[in-house]
Design goal:
Bound molecules: 5'-O-[(R)-(carboxyoxy)(hydroxy)phosphoryl]adenosine, zinc ion
Distance between the termini: 22 Å
Largest sheet: 5 strands, mixed
Strand content: 15-25%
Number of helices: 11
Length: 354
């Protein structure tokens, strides 16, 4: 049995967690997530403010995760830390703290890819959310369709050509005069919206596409965002001219277009690779309409869909500790020269053993 402390500071949550176990038999002992609400005022994450906020909270957040688990630092076997992709200044706080902790306690340091963490998140709650599976990771910064043959072996099938799914939700929320981050507000409004009033084109989704085509799995959301903008302008100058019905109908039209695109592409991936399990992850996986749309389609091919609870769908250190445990068991160790990376292709993980 190995006990891992995970640290995540890639964006605007300072998070620490402890998990323990072996293989896929893993238990979460604690999870602390401190969300930096300050960015709401600016309508988006301000990198410099994020780094500073991580600096003030990292030590108490880690101490709290250790205390919540009923443990002391002496009882931790290794430290796992997110080293990319993300905001480099924010990542550096976690990486530096993780290094210092590992060095000070004389325990191993394990570097974790943030998106690999998201792949592991659902497995903390559902024992069957393990490979082989098709993964759809949808957050504010990423939209990835991945075939997971086994842990550590990932094939990125598709990605967004422009905005990430969460980014599209946030931009449309802004057009509708909703607060940041807007995804959950758009979802709430869309529930009462009329699905037939605004029917936006499904981007990069056509019947004549076939598996070899380069847009078979890729998605694009900037077009729907522009279509919403034009519809808002048609109704008046800006969001202040919209009434509650307009807002709900626009939210519904947008959400339906985005979700249908993601759900269809996810099912294409599962069908092509013969996967019977689909795992969702990232903040947009909190969207119940998305999970329902993927679920409906999956049922027709006898596949199961696993979506993490909101706490594990959004950025958190439990998923980093969980992925770190896998890396630790494989023998992966990071040196004290570990750096942080703003961009870090997931594909580089599949064949590395360093
Ligand atoms: O994974 P996450 O917490 O942070 C990163 O971006 O890494 O994802 C945040 C994104 C935001 O864009 C937010 O608007 C979106 O997830 N989101 C949602 C919902 N809840 C959060 N989007 C659609 N529906 C939701 N219920
Ligand atoms: Zn994330």
């Amino acid at each position: 049995m190995t006990r891992i402390l995970g640290i995540e500071t890639s964006c605007d949550e300072t998070s620490a967690a402890i998990v323990e176990g072996t293989g896929d038999d893993v238990v979460q002992r604690s999870l602390v997530i401190l969300s930096q609400d300050v960015h709401r005022v600016f309508g988006g994450v301000v990198p410099e403010i994020a780094s500073r906020a991580h600096l003030t909270s990292i030590a108490p957040v880690v101490a709290r995760a250790v205390a919540d688990a009923g443990l002391t630092l002496d009882e931790i076997d290794a430290v796992a830390v997110t080293y990319g992709p993300g905001l480099v200044g924010a990542l550096l706080v976690g990486v530096s703290y993780g290094k210092a902790l590992a060095f000070g306690r004389g325990i191993p340091l394990v570097a974790v890819h943030h998106m690999e963490g998201h792949l592991f998140a659902t497995a903390l709650e559902h024992r069957d959310a393990v490979p082989p599976f098709t993964a759809l990771l949808v957050s504010g910064g990423h939209t990835l369709l991945i075939d997971v043959e086994e842990w550590g072996h990932y094939t990125v099938l598709g990605a967004t050509r422009d905005d990430a799914a969460g980014e599209a939700f946030d931009k449309v929320a802004k057009l509708l005069g909703l607060p940041y981050p807007g995804g959950r507000h758009v979802e709430r409004l869309a529930r009462d919206g009329d699905p037939s009033r605004f029917r936006f084109t499904r981007p990069m989704l056509r019947r004549d596409q076939s598996p070899g085509d380069d847009d078979y799995y890729d998605v694009s959301f900037s077009g729907i965002k522009t279509a919403v903008l034009l519809a808002v302008r048609k109704l008046g100058a800006d969001s202040s001219a919209l009434d509650d019905r307009d807002r709900a109908d626009l939210a519904r039209g947008f959400q339906d277009a985005l979700i249908e695109t993601l759900a269809e592409k996810t099912l294409r991936a599962a069908t092509q690779h013969g996967r019977r399990r689909i795992v969702l992850g990232g903040g947009v996986a909190c969207n119940n309409a998305l999970a329902a749309a993927v679920g409906e389609r999956a049922e027709t091919m006898g596949a199961r869909v696993f979506a993490p609870s909101p706490r594990l769908a959004t950025d958190n250190a439990a998923m980093i500790a969980r992925a770190g445990l896998f890396r630790f068991e494989r023998g992966d160790r990071a040196g004290l020269d570990l750096n942080a990376y703003a961009t870090l292709p997931l594909a580089t993980l599949s064949h590395s053993n360093a």
